[in-house]
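Working notes for the structural subgroup meeting. M.R. asked for a predicted model of this chain before we commit to crystallization trials. I am recording the input and output together here so anyone reviewing the notebook later can reproduce the run.

Input as submitted:
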Amino acid sequence: MFIFWFATIVFIGTYIVIASEKVHKTTAALVGASLMFLVVLQGPSHGEHEESPSRVLEKSMVHSKVDAEMLERAGKYEELDVFARYVNFDVIFTLAGMMLLVNVLSGTGIFQYIAIKSAKIAKGSPVRTMILLVVATAVLSAFLDNVTTVLLIAPVTLLVAAELGVSAMPFLMAETMASNIGGTATLIGDPPNLIIGSVARLDFAAFMLNLSPFIVILLIIYCICLKMYYSKRMQVTVEKRARIMELDESAAITDPVNMKRGGIVMIITIIGFLMHGALGIQPCVIAIAGSALCLAVCKVDVDHCLEKIEWSTLFFFLGLFALVSGAAQGGLLAKFGSLLAFTQDWNILLTVLVVMWISAICAAVMNNVSYTAAIVSVIAGFLVSTPAFAEPAAKELMWWGLALAVCLGGNGTLVGAAANLITAGIAEKGGHKITFKEFFRYGFPVTLFSMIAASIYISIRYYICCV
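Returned structure, recorded in token form:
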């Protein structure tokens, strides 16, 4: 009981400190993680005496061979060696690799070129430029991932806003929301989808077929709302528009040789992300290999590129993963899992909707990657043990609902998704600090509307597929 309450207090206390912004978020996360490692999380000396939660779950029920395989996949995140199992290093190294790759490209002037070109295509209109960048962000997020996309788009945005003479904050916030919305559409678009897909055995085509049509509609509505809200709030003079149209984007390219080499490596890396499932290679390997190749073929100052990596964000995620693992080890997530037992006699749709809304809230508070890595085992076990979800269509409904909830819920708070933290880090370096409260003011309405729309979509799917 002591471990449970200690883990609960440390977990909730750390998030309160992060939200209060009295202490730097990375410091708060690392202190909370340290307390979890010291008291709650099991080290090497305990390895022979404990069983992973998924193994305990497997022993507690009777299930088919297919269900056993699903539980085994759900438990793979719990079976890493000793302390390493508490941190998802696939996410950490994917972030690090893409940060390094973007840092190399940023020195060539390519982002300045894109900034000027985007503003000229939009004829100097801030709102049209915003919508152009939002659509580009969403599309790229679906086929790269939302973290890589904001690493590419955020530096461009700062330059676009500077050229237009308007605040970069609305642009950055709109793009961050779009990255999480667009990333929901595919298997590789958002890290939680990778976790869900591996456990539920849902491939790239399945995500595209089942989620992308809804995401396209949601994105169109989002762009219409942006246009209506910012049309009269964001204006520039005719003179400034004229100056924008006179700019020569080609003059922004300062290193054409490295731009071509780095661009080719980026294309190869993107192809690697698209094919990583078929190749059986983890995304982190693709990202690190791409960044290493870029450093090898481009003549750059390696130390300088490494210094520009968002180390604060990476260490924040290290702490956050350990914090969530401590909450799981202490029994806090098991308490949540036990609550699902009360829904065994409920209607399938009602159960899925309740799980969705709870998951959206938890993803916003806990970070959607960390929450998803912890909850997939709970959901897998629940689906196995609940007769109402015996049919494949019912199980898929739950997985699609969970994917929508954790990805869209990531827009709720600053810590909700990796893309949010990356944007905040880049913005702060550019002199634009995004506070927890300010992000929530933007993110909450978007998340609320998105979840209402997702609930309607899942309800329609239920009556089409499960009745």
